[in-house]
Amino acid sequence: MTGLPTPPPPKEELMSTPLLQATETLTPTAVANTAVIAVVITVVFITLLSVLIVIIIYLYKNKGSYITYEPPEGEASETLQMENDSVQGKKDEYFI
Fold this sequence. Notes:
There is one protein chain. It is built from three helices and no strands. The longest helix is centred in the middle third of the chain and has 34 residues, at 28-61. The protein is an all-alpha fold. The chain is 53% helix and 0% strand.
């Protein structure tokens, strides 16, 4: 067994898990900057969400509001009778 090479001893870093390794601590200004960024992102998200809700409510309440110039259902037959009477008469042509 004297002829086999021995492996090098493991390093201290490889022995511990990533959770147990030392992490760098953030300075108070870095923590404050992170908090400000998180608040700004949250405010933008809430604003976009509220604008989307207002647009959906507006579109839902104004659905189908348009004006038609067609006569009501009951007057349709009278209109057709008047058109048929005018076709049967003699058409006059006027030259200016």
